[in-house]
Design brief:
By secondary structure, this protein is an alpha+beta fold. The chain contains nine helices and 23 strands. Helix content is about 20%, strand content about 30%. It starts with a helix and ends in an 18-residue tail after the last helix.
Length: about 425
């Protein structure tokens, strides 16, 4: 570890001012013993960056050191021209102020600037920062005039990812006091789509999903189900833990089709098969993929009709095959009730997909979210106390989902209960 730490520190200490390109940065993102601590899957382009600095806030799900940050320009029609990136630790999502002395200037191939071409992405060099699960990482990016590749749907109310935009022009990334930044914008993240680190954790679970994974409408004061899962795993001994990366995008579809809600394809990310490489397989340390999608396909919308069960099944089978081909494990989650009447074509399709998920043998394991949340008196709906609307659990429902997952599907066991005193 002493040799590795020295190499990391030397790499980060190097700083030259000539521009770099994404191709000059390390490719693949894989470093020894590295895992993905958090993710914010990018979904589209919304405007051009002003002459201001965006301070992104992300919460990590495992301990780690030698942090690396990935910036993405997957949807931009022009290059993402990054003039500076600063990475620090943030005590609270309610304030842009950083832990004094924690802010570090990121480099890319030992250079302080980087140009990311359309469709590209780039990892930073390792940074001399150490985090613990639950810490907030601040990533301040100054890239005026660049296309804003973002994640914009509001996640839940507590420990939410989000950002602060500087009030004035110029590069404010070095400001640890936070006085250069305006109000918090929950759920809005620009360019930053992953944070990785060297960690004792055994690997990463990626939750590939739509709004139910994204945390949309999970109101009532609580974390997303993926955060509940991460907290449970965080109680295990360090060498038995896994990090959890949330790759949920509200409105996403599991099959390749026009998006039901947006003909511009900028609201909801590419369909899951098209984003699988970028949002899942390219991430460091991935060992398990948990798929919870299909609601938007089966429900349809103004721009796409309801998909038949066969279309959803074919997409899931394709994703599972690609994940298995890389040596990872694939976990299938059943689709939650959608308020479609019993006997209706949409409900019949949902039931058919769920039966296939449970019985086909396509997945290494199944988590039956449908059985967990459905109302016993009316299985076409989520139980009243656990739902926000017909499609989305509330915060209580998300907690139930996160607590319902048998950790053995990830090769883990629950921590032993402590003996009672006396």
């Amino acid at each position: 570890m002493g040799i590795r730490r020295s190499v990391v520190l030397l790499a980060v200490a190097a700083s030259v001012l000539t521009p770099a390109t994404a191709e000059a940065a390390p490719t693949g993102g894989a470093w020894p013993h590295s895992v993905t601590l958090t993710e914010s899957s990018l979904q589209g382009v919304h405007g051009t960056a002003p002459d201001a600095t965006i301070r992104n806030v992300l919460t990590v799900t495992a301990d780690g050191t030698a942090l690396r940050i990935r910036l993405g320009n997957p949807f931009g029609g022009t290059a993402l021209a990054v003039r500076s990136v600063w990475v620090g630790l943030q005590p609270s999502t309610r304030s842009p102020a950083l832990v004094p002395g924690s802010n570090r200037r990121a480099t890319f191939g030992f250079r302080r600037t980087v140009t990311v071409p359309p469709g590209g992405g780039v990892w930073s060099d390792p940074l001399p920062l150490t985090v613990r699960a639950g810490d907030h990482v601040s990533v301040s990016v100054y890239a005026p005039g660049s296309p804003i590749n973002d994640h914009t749907f509001p996640p839940p109310e507590t420990n939410t990812p989000g950002s602060f935009l500087s009030a004035g022009p110029g590069d404010a990334g070095a400001d640890e006091s936070g006085t250069a930044f305006g109000a918090f914008s929950p759920g809005n993240l620009w360019w930053v789509d992953a944070v990785s680190a060297v960690s004792a954790a055994r690997g990463t679970i990626v939750a590939l999903g739509d709004s139910i994974t994204d945390g949309y409408n999970a109101f009532g004061g609580g974390p997303r189900w993926t955060d509940v899962l991460a907290a449970r795993i965080g109680k295990l001994p360090p060498g038995r833990r896994l990090s959890v990366a949330n790759a949920g995008i509200s409105g996403n579809t599991v099959s390749v089709q026009p998006n039901p809600y947006d003909p511009t394809n900028q609201c909801c990310g590419p369909p899951a098969p098209l984003r699988l490489d970028r949002d899942v397989l390219s991430l460091p340390g991935v060992r398990y993929v948990l798929l919870l999608e299909g609601t938007n396909d089966l429900g349809g919308g103004d721009y796409a009709p309801p998909a038949p069960a066969s279309q959803v099944i074919d997409a899931m089978r394709t994703i599972a095959a690609r994940v298995h081909a890389t040596g990872r494990k694939m976990i299938g989650a059943t689709i939650l009730p959608m308020c479609n009447p019993a006997g209706s074509s949409k409900e019949q399709a949902r039931l058919a997909v769920n039966e296939w998920i449970r019985t086909s043998g396509t997945f290494d394991a199944v988590v039956d979210f449908d059985a967990v949340l459905r109302d016993p008196a009316d299985p076409t709906v989520i139980r009243q106390e656990w739902r926000n609307d017909c499609y989305h659990p509330n915060a209580a429902g998300d907690r139930i989902l996160g607590e319902s997952i048998d950790l053995s599907v990830f090769g883990l066991s629950e921590p032993a209960a402590l003996p009672l005193a006396g």
